Give the backbone structure.
Amino acid sequence: MGVLITAAALILGYGTAYLASADVRYLTRAGIEQTLILEKRRPIEKLLADPKLDLETRAYLGLVLEVRQHAAELGLEAGKTYTTYTDVGRDTLLLVLSASPRNCICPRTWKYPIVGRIPYKGFFDVAMARREADRLAALGHDTYLRPAGAYSTLGWFEDPLLSTALVRDSMELAATVFHELAHNTLYIKSATPFNESLAQLVGYRSAEEFFRARGDTLLADRARDRWFDEIGLGEFYHELLGKLETFYAGKPEADSLEAGRLAIGRWAREQLEGPLAGRFRTYRVTRLAERPINNAALVGVRIYRTRLDWFDRWYRQHGGSVKVSVAALRELMDRVSGDSAFARLGQALGDTAQTSAR
């Protein structure tokens, strides 16, 4: 009887907390979705043995297993990640929210166990994501919601490949798998830009090595060129963010704030449509040039493109090898957290003048 009373009290307490707390509702939905994803996963090898599987999906799933094998050869911690596949039953599984005040490049952060503070929040519930975006917008923030096809639990679960990540592009699919396995291999607490920018390097450079080893020069060159473009975009956004931070430091208000953002937006369009237009090998910059200034969106692009040139220099200094460069970086980053990761990498590269993560 005592057990039943205790259980009833716990259920009642949870129900009260669920109704009163947005955080409890958020965590409940996330837990339910993660459970469903894990319950619906099917071994890729069994799917490949199914004669009813369409040829295109068969080819992409087979590629994923080959990429996993190559990742293990590179020293990436593949474990059982992406040995299974889950069809989530919809085009968008997860929406990722970024936010920042309109007068500052100051990302709103959320704190989680293990990973620490991160400058975005993922939502499985579209309505919940939009409510949170609207709430932050009402507080004077720029907000940015984007879909995410894949995510990593850092090896805590045996992550399945999600149907939303099964992009119909062999190079990008391979890069995505390498990218996510990079998170299993090296993850610095409270250092999201470092983690994501490193994963960008691992994703595209590993894809280049993988396809070149297969004799597929076309896809190897495209992976190389995409990484070249990512570095170029990183440099562009570094300059754009520098201009915005200088402008915001003057504490502009109301009309002057909007006028300044518009002026810097025009500068960005002129750069993308002018001197940068012919530089990119794989990206079309027209759509980028049309985007207005949005601090939250810029927070997002900086997460994935912070000091990419540093990571590429590290890669080149270690023989142009993902295996060697990642192993050396893991050793370098022992017991590092937060912004110290970029500081230590900059020092190791001899870039003592600029060790910030901007």
User: Anything to note?
Assistant: The CA atoms of residues 160 and 297 lie 28 Å apart. The radius of gyration is 22 Å.
